[in-house]
Amino acid sequence: MKIAVFDSKQYDRQALTLANHDYGFALSFFEPRLNGDTVALAAGFEVVCPFVNDRLDAAVVASLAAGGTRLVALRCAGFNGVDVAACSRHGIRVVRVPAYSPHAVAEHAFALLLAVNRRIHKAYVRVREMDFSLDGLVGFDLHGKTFGVIGTGRIGEAAIGIARGFGMRVLAHDVAQDRLLANQLGFSYVDRATLLAESDVVSLHLPLLPATRHLIDAITLAQMKRGALLINTSRGGLIDTPALIEALKDGRLGGVGLDVYEMEEGVFFENLSEAGLQDDQLARLLTFPNVLITSHQGFLTREALDNIARTTLGNVQAFARGAVLDNAVHG
Q: Would you call 235 a catalytic residue per the annotation?
C-alpha cells in the first residue's frame, strides 16, 4: 500500500523506514502538515499518516476521499484534529497509536517539574555566563509534598508511579476511577476542587475533548494552592492561556512547565530563530522566569518512536488484511 506521511521530520523518517523493513509498504514523506493547502499531495495515496497538528476538517476529508484515500493512520494518540464523522461519511477509516510509551511522557513531565522547581533552566544560563550566585534558585523538596494527577490513564499511571518513588503523597481525579490501581500504587481519588486546593504540583494527563477544553481556567487556577506548580504534557487546549498569564502575573503559581500550547500549530516543531515569534501570548509566557516551555517533545525517545512506527504500520497492515482494527477511532 502507498502511504503519504505528513509533517515528517528526520526522526519520523528514520523510525518509519526502519520499521517498514518488516512490512514493505511504499512510504512517501512530506514535510508540510496535512491541511487544506497541502491535501493535493495526498492524491493517489490509499493511506495518509498525519501527526498531532495536521488538520483534517470536512473539506480536507472530502478531498482525501476524492483522491482515493481509504485510511487515516494517525501516528499519535490524540485525534482532535480529525473530523472523524466526516471520515465515516466518506468511508475512510481512522486509526491511531493509543499508547506508544507512557513512560516517555511521564518522565518528561517530571523533567519539567524538576527543572522548574529547582530553577535548572535559570541556573544553566547563569553558569554559562560565569554567574555562580544562588539567589532566586530556591526550590522545595518533592518528598512529602502532594502530587495531583488529573487523568489516570496509562501516562497518568506512569506519572503516579514516579511520584510515589519520590515519596510524594498522590491525589488523583478522573471521571473513570480505577480503585484497584489506586490500591496498588497507593494514591487516593478526590474531587477536582480538593485536588487543586491540596496539591503542591498539578500534572495534566488528559485527552483534549469538548469537556476538557480549558479545564484549567481562571476559576480552577484560583482554586489551586498558592505557590503550586502546574505541569502540562498532554494537550495545550486543556489550559486557558490568557487566564494562565494572569495567574502568573499575580504570583499565584510557583511555576509552570509546558510541553504543549493551545496555539502551537505552526510554531512547535519549527525553527523560527530567523523569522521570529508572531504569537504574543506565547511570547508573554516566555518572559516569566518561572515558566519552562519545551516544544512538544515528551514523546521523543528512541523507544517511543519505535513503538509509534511499528504500531502505525501494524494498523495499516491490519486494514490491508481486512482484520479487526483494534486501534480504530469511531465517530
A: yes
Give the tens place of pLDDT for each residue, 200-209: 999 999 989 9
pTM summary value: 0.89
Mean pLDDT across the chain: 95
Q: Which three cell numbers stand for residue 252?
A: 499565584
Cα distance between residue 14 and residue 279, in whole Å:
31
Catalytic residue among 235, 262, 265, 310: 235
Give me the catalytic one of 46, 157, 264, 265.
264
Please say whether the beta carbons of 205 and 149 come within 8 A.
yes
Measured CA to CA, the distance from residue 230 to residue 202 in angstroms comes to 5
* DSSP-H helix ranges across 32-101: 58-66, 84-89
Judge residue 278's burial from the number of C-beta atoms within 10 Å of its C-beta, 0-12 exposed, 13-18 middle, 19 or more buried.
exposed
Report the SS3 class of residue 34: coil
